[in-house]
Amino acid sequence: MSPKLIVLILALLLGMQPVTTDLYLPALPAVTAGFGASMGQAQLTLTALLLAFGLSQLVWGPLSDRCGRKTILLWGMATYTLASVACMFAPSMAWLIAGRTLQGLAMGAGVMGARAVVRDLYAPAKGATVMSQALTGLGIIACTCAPLGGLLTEVVGWRMALSVLGIYGAGTFALIYWRFEETLARPDPHALKARPLVRANLEILRNRTFQTWCALSACSYLGLFTFLASSSFVFIQALGYSKTVYGFLMLSMSASYIVGTFWCRWMLRRTSVQRTVGVAACLTLTGGVSMVALAYAGEGQSWYGAWAIMLPMYIFMIGHGVHQPCGQSGAVAPFPHRAGTASALNGFLMMLGAFFMGGWLGQHMDRPVFAIAHGILLWAAIITLIAWTAVQRHARSELVGATA
To answer: Which of 95, 167, 262, 383 lies at 20 to 30 Å from 321 by C-alpha?
Structure first.
């Protein structure tokens, strides 16, 4: 496979996350009103998806180490496409939650597989750069999702918005079927045996390098998830913006993330991964602190608007564009022969955190502006602590000096 084809496939697989969440977010208030559902049920369509996404990776990872990446990716994309059709025709909120859960199960195969493919094909230093390129593609996909979701929801309804997920799944399935070549050189015949599997998982979880990079990538994702899970209620319901405007606000946020991924590659060509992540954490913390400060200063004031949330979020997302490629590639770097399992554990821990964060948000959305600001500040502080301490002590030297 050519390098461009590899990056395209990785971007489509990793892009399943923003397609499944960002395109759906503008429709979330309409879905809630259409079914007469509570805000807790609405949040469950996200948290159930993410919990299933996280848990499924614990199965998909060892399966891909045993059976190969292509087989697992094809099964995952076929299931994702069928689940998307089920969501589109959901007759009730319970049916929609079930369909979203199945989408999460299938999405685990794609995202886990993408991370494992990077480790199959590249040494850790190059892997960080390739992951950054793929995540730039993810950002471009995310840029189109929220505006498209908002526009379709306003013009033709939320069901047609969800139909795009099925089209995306079918197209990615076709590309993998005809163009993807197996990347796993030596399948592990013991990958599915209980005792070696438990031993491998414990070995990965005890590894300081894995702990460090997994914590960084997970906490950075949880900051983003906090924003995504509450933003439609903040902008559409609390601040009164239209679904289309909300979609373009999400586009601008994704654009700032793309800037972060380009800056990540620029920094990695010039300095160590430790310094790159440490500098990015300064932006992360600045975004969290400024969002809370503006929320308190603007309470009840006429000047407070979308800009007071989005400007701090842009700063946070530039840092996110550094933390994700470095964290995701770093977490699997020590395990070339167990890349699927390591990727699965990393993804599971991310989604487990998102599940609990979604539950917390469902209970604190009576003041949505403060819920989103406090959540971002919490994760910004934790990310900064990890970046300035654990990353400096435990980052692997192989990731230093990554080149584009």
So the answer is: 167
What torsion, rounded to 10 degrees, do the Cα atoms 39, 42, 43, 49 define? Answer: 170
Give Cα separations from 23 to 19, 141, 250 (angstroms).
5, 10, 10
Angle at which helices 158-179 and 3-14 cross, to 10°: 150
Which tokens sit at 171? Answer: 């197209």
Contact yes or no for 215/346 (Cβ under 8 A): no
Is residue 352 exposed (0-12), middle (13-18) or buried (19+ Cβ within 10 Å)? middle
Distance, CA of 72 to CA of 351 (rounded, Å): 20
Burial of 217 (0-12, 13-18, 19+ CB in 10 A): buried
Kindly state the tokens that stand for 370: 């403060």
* Per-residue pLDDT reduced to its tens digit, 110-169: 988 888 888 788 876 677 778 888 888 888 887 788 788 878 887 888 888 888 899 999
- Percent of the chain exceeding pLDDT 90 equals 30
Q: What's the sign of the alpha-carbon dihedral 118, 122, 128, 131?
A: negative
Residue whose C-alpha is closest to residue 312's, from 365, 381, 271, 253: 253
What are 314-370's pLDDT values in tens digits? 999 999 999 988 888 888 878 877 777 787 788 788 877 877 777 677 666 667 788
- What six digits make up the tokens of 116? 């494992």
Q: In this structure, what token pair is assigned to residue 161?
A: 């918005």
Closest CA to 339 of 57, 36, 85, 27: 57
Nearest one of 318, 242, 233 to 277, comparing CA atoms: 318
All domains of the chain, ordered by start, with CATH? 3-180+200-397 (1.20.1250.20)
Q: Judge whether residue 226 has pLDDT over 60.
A: yes
Cβ neighbours for 230, distance < 8 A, ≥ 6 positions apart? 361, 365, 368, 371, 372, 375
